[in-house]
Design a protein that fits this description.
By secondary structure, the protein is an alpha+beta fold. The chain is 27% helix and 28% strand.
């Protein structure tokens, strides 16, 4: 799964501009599913048709956080808006890629050298509105010749890397390309199911769970599993109650977040699946939210599970995951479906 995760995490696809990552996913799954379609929100909905009437959705959002070009000044500096949740401290001195109608162009979010920065300015928090993207050009006209204009998406430029062990890797956008990698592998592994399986790669999760709302509404579902990424540890100088799950100890069965509470019935299914398959797992209460918040209250309500992959330094360019956790997530999801068929 390492090579697949590398390809997915390095690919561009900010919220609302998921076209390139979507094409990559289609190429991976097209020979393993019976049907592929795209809905009005851009969600990619794949189907493996079964003989039984039991309908299952596994969903993973394919969008990533990023930026959008806002303005180009007379000297060619580009101001931008964030798409999704960022800590501004993580943005300075980063390379980015602007995706224009004429191609991809690398720029940097530069900050003043310490030699010319007053101490009071060093002590102030960075603000997005004070940052600019620099392409090394000197005029607005030079920038515009590259096809760059307001509204163009901007992604972070970082390469996938193995860290201290073969199973520990780092890149941008493991939230949620890690979940996409697991879903792709599940679609490849499950053959001729007796239930109908909908593998859904959703859009615009990072800006309000928008894709999931329409994707779930368009399918009559008996059970849904959301695969996402969540804050994992350990993280230096962070209190234990702030980061309650760790890399290498299996996926998280999410008990609650800002928009979702796991039902007792679905919790029993997940715990039984973990125990029967011997998959390590953790439990987690999140301060964020996932597509599960939108899916579980669709129509009359859908029994929904959220299974999250721990990721250190989430929403940065140096996220870290343990590949063993991805494999454990895959096994837990597949076993949970087997049990849910007989209990829901």
């Amino acid at each position: 799964m390492k090579e697949l995760l590398k390809k997915l995490s390095e690919a561009p696809g900010v919220s609302g501009h998921e076209g390139r990552i979507k094409k990559m996913i289609i190429d991976e799954v097209k020979s393993h599913v019976d049907e592929i379609k795209e809905d009005s929100m851009g969600n990619l909905i794949t189907t493996k048709k079964g003989s039984d009437k039991f309908n299952v959705m596994i969903a993973a959002h394919m969008d990533e956080i990023g930026f959008m070009v806002k303005h180009i000044d007379d000297k060619g500096f580009i101001s931008f808006e964030t798409i999704g949740g960022f800590d501004p401290r993580s943005l300075g001195s980063q390379r980015v890629i602007i995706h224009s109608s004429k191609g991809d162009f690398i720029g940097v979010i530069g900050i003043k050298p310490p030699h010319i920065t007053p101490q009071e300015e060093k002590d102030r928090a960075l603000k997005v509105e004070d940052m600019r993207i620099d392409l090394g050009l000197n005029t607005k006209e030079e920038v515009e010749k590259l096809g760059i204009k307001p509204g163009d998406p901007v992604t972070r430029d970082i390469s996938f890397a193995k860290l201290g062990k073969d199973n520990i890797v780092s890149c941008k956008s493991f939230d949620n390309r890690a979940g996409c990698a697991v879903l792709i592998e599940i679609l490849k592994k499950i053959r001729n199911p007796d239930y109908s399986l909908y593998g859904v790669f959703t859009t615009q999760e990072e800006v309000g769970l928008r894709g999931a709302k329409t994707a779930a509404y368009g399918i009559n579902l008996d059970f849904a599993i959301i695969i996402d990424s969540t804050v994992g540890g350990p993280i230096p100088k962070t209190e234990a109650d702030k980061v309650t799950i760790s890399l290498g100890k299996g996926p998280s069965i999410d008990l609650m977040d800002r928009g979702f509470i796991l039902s007792e019935k679905v919790k029993e299914i997940l715990l039984e699946a973990a125990n029967e398959s011997g998959v390590p797992y953790q439990t987690h209460i999140s301060s964020g939210s996932t597509d599960g918040a939108a899916v579980h209250i669709t129509k009359e309500g859908i029994p929904t599970a959220v299974i999250s992959i721990p990721s250190k330094y989430i929403h940065s360019t140096v996220e870290i995951v343990d590949l063993n956790d991805l494999e454990s997530t895959l096994n837990l999801v597949m076993k949970s479906i087997e049990i849910a068929k007989n209990k829901l």
